[in-house]
Amino acid sequence: MQLIAIDDASASEVGGVGLVSKYVSAAIADSTRRAYRQDLQDFLNWGGSIPATPEVVAAYVAERAQTQTVATLTRRVVGIGRAHVSQGLSDTTKSDLVRTVLRGVRRVNGAAQRRVNPLVKRELLEMVACMDGVRGVRDRALLLMGFSAALRRSELAALQVEDIEMVREGMVINIRKSKTDQDALGRKIAIPWGRQSVCPVQALNQWLDASKITSGPIFRAINRADHIATQQLSAQSIALIIKGYACQVGLDQAKFSGHSLRAGFVTSAIQAGVAVHKIQQQTGHKSVEMLSRYIRDASLFDGNASGAIL
Predict the structure, then answer these.
(1) 227 assigned to active site
(2) Which of 48, 147, 188, 225 gets the most CB atoms within 10 Å of its CB?
C-alpha cells in the first residue's frame, strides 16, 4: 500500500496522467493532504491495511480511543475512508459497525474539542505595550493586522506586500486563498485607520519602513542579530509569538494560539455591539451558525439571570 494512493491513485488509469495528477493534487490543500497521510500511516503502523474490513477499522478505533481524542480519531477514519475510495474500493468506514463504535467513543470519551482563549482587545493592547526593538515593530504590525482583519494564522503568514492596497480610508487586504476558499476566488478585507492609540495601518507602514521590505512576504523571521530573513514566518511561528506575549503579560500561554487573534476580534466586536453581518464581512464566515459559539460566549454576562437576582 503506497500513501500516494490518497492523492491520485486513480489518475494513472486516465489519459494525460501528468495533468490529471496535477489537478487532483491541487484540489486538496497541502495541509489536508499531509493530515490524510499521517492518519493513514497511523492505521498502517497499528497493523491495518488497505483494503480493510469494517471489523478491522472498528477494532482500530476502539483501541486508539484509549490514547487519542475523538476529533483525531474521527479525522483518521476519514483518511482511511479516502484511501479506499481513491483506489476504487468500497468505503468500509461508512459501515454501521464503524459508525456505531465511533458514536460509542464519543459518548464515553466526550466529543468536545479543545478551544483556545480569544485574545480580546484589552489583552491585545497590553501585549502591544510591551513590544520593543525591530522584532517589536514587526510583532506590533503582525498582531494588530491579524486581529483587525480577523485573519487565520495561515492567511497572516501568507500575506505579501502586493496583497496590500493603501487607500484614503486605510488599507485593503486581498486574501488570495484561505482554508474555506481552496478555489482561490479571493476576498477583500478593509482595515480603516485606527481611532485610538494603536492603528493597524500605521503599524504596518512602520514595519515596512523599518524593514525596507518592498515586495514579497510581509512578515518574516528575524534572527538574534536583528537580521530580517527573506522567507515568510510559518503559521506555527505566529502561534509561538502570540504565546510568548501572552506569557509576558501574565496570561496562561497554553490557552492561546494563532487562532486567538481571529477569535478575539469576533468576541470583542460582539461585546462592542457590532452587527453580526458586519462581523461576517470581516471574518468571511459563510453563516451566522459558524459565529454562534462566539456570540454565546461573548454574551454570557449580558442580562445574566443570576446577576439580576443576586
Answers:
(1) no
(2) 147
